[in-house]
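pasting for ref
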Amino acid sequence: MDKVFEALTNVHLKYNWLISNYECNCYPNELIPFGKEYVWITGEKLNQIIFENEIQFIWGVFSAFEKDIKKEDALKYPLPYADGNPSYWRNNFNIQHPLAKIEIVPWDSTLVLIIAEENIVVESFLKSFPLAEELSEYNSRH
């Protein structure tokens, strides 16, 4: 995730994050514990954990929320999930959480999906990873 956040020009610092349906290679910090249903964390704390540890997210959904959105408001909706979610592979996909601005999905250690309200976020990722492609283009071919 450190490479992903760098590619997104550290936009993650502007948000609070709901991390759900996650599985990691290690759980180096009590803020991202093993077996928890979700984590609510500031972008600054997430940055610290990601850049101070060699942590690989195998699965997960990172949902970005404006700083004025409260955890209680975010939790009024179903938790976003990755593993087994077919919506990513359809042409009309959206950010799962209606209050989120960005969704980052580590997918089974094989790829990362980025869905964002602002195209500049996706464009920044595509610029940093030239072999990456638009999800809608991928879905159209498959």
